[in-house]
Amino acid sequence: MISTSGLIKKYGRTLALQGLDINVPEGAVYGFIGRNGAGKTTTLRILAGLLIPDAGRAEVAGRDVLRDPRGVREVVGYMPDFFGVYDDLRVGEYLLFYAAAYGIRGATAQKLRDDLLELVELGHKRDAFVDTLSRGMQQRLCLARSLIHDPKVLLLDEPASGLDPLARVEMREILRELCRLGKTIIISSHILSELADLCTHVGMISEGRLLRQGPLNEMLAGDRVRKFILRSNGPARAAVEVIEGWPGAAVLNAADEQVEFRMSGDAAEVAGLLKGIIGAGAEVVHFAQTEQSLEDTFIQLAREVQEQ
Ligand SMILES: Nc1ncnc2c1ncn2[C@@H]1O[C@H](COP(=O)(O)OP(=O)(O)OP(=O)(O)O)[C@@H](O)[C@H]1O
């Protein structure tokens, strides 16, 4: 549905994209994760037909961004990370204005305005001035605007940034609804936890390159490395020493009586390590595997890339 291959974009001497390859299947909600400056906005702007890459290919719903930018804009709704709203317009007028830009007028435009306001839960604000809306409401209005031409694909750049926790939940509900309506969505974020319960797929980007992508459940499977927590009666020093000397294990955090570590290997190896820790004199009172979060996966991959 959406794909890029070998995408390169330079801004002067800055290489923002260094051969990016991403693949987003139809109907996916693709969480596009990366730190500030990783190249997320650049990628979304290219996919929206707003920025021309220096090399490589990008395709959206079968349309090539270089050969058919107009066709791309027809199927894409883009919500930028920073957006301006016209202050002297009322909410309803704002949407009618954008509908007119797409040639939609009269009763059809009014129905569309009402449907979209309902979708983004702003029906009660139809006659309010845009500049009196809260940040969360303005984000939702901007989302409604990006939906005016009923695009198949939505590109949302940090849609939850600057929102308070409740507004984030509201935004999440709306995105779920859009997903049910069958849209293919890319959502960029540098806040990993924000995406975990929303996305079906995840792509991790660092310095303009893809680190890893795939279905969320596979990314979280964490079969590469597992994380454990151990608590002891008294200082965990003995346990820390054993873990640090154990092949494939590494201490992540150590406090007085507690140590968190990661380890690769099968159940027998984990049992072997635990035996070693107890044998070294640690009085273990708690030992458990903890879930590998999206954040852990991302940090681990980013470290591996830096070490290469
Ligand atoms: N117009 C520009 N001129 C010069 N450099 C730019 C421009 N836009 C982006 N860059 C640089 O390109 C790189 C990628 O930026 P981009 O905005 O795509 O990253 P991002 O992942 O969206 O970051 P953020 O999360 O901060 O929005 C950064 O090093 C940035 O400084």
From TrEMBL:
Q: Which PROSITE patterns match?
A: ABC_TRANSPORTER_2
Answer yes or no on keyword Phosphoprotein. no
May I ask which residue range the UniProt record assigns to the signal sequence?
A: none
Instruction: Tell me the superkingdom of the source.
Output: Bacteria
Q: Where is the ABC transporter domain?
A: 2-232
Keywords recorded for this protein, A-Z: ATP-binding, Nucleotide-binding, Transport
Record InterPro entries: AAA+_ATPase (IPR003593), ABC_transporter-like_ATP-bd (IPR003439), P-loop_NTPase (IPR027417)
SUPFAM superfamilies in alphabetical order:
P-loop containing nucleoside triphosphate hydrolases (SSF52540)
Q: Which Pfam families match?
A: ABC_tran
Give the GO molecular function terms. Answer: ATP binding; ATP hydrolysis activity
Instruction: Describe the family membership recorded for this protein in Swiss-Prot or TrEMBL.
Output: Belongs to the ABC transporter superfamily.
What is the protein name stated in its UniProt record?
ABC-2 type transport system ATP-binding protein
Source organism per UniProt: Desulfoscipio geothermicus DSM 3669
Q: Provide the taxonomic classification.
A: Bacteria, Bacillati, Bacillota, Clostridia, Eubacteriales
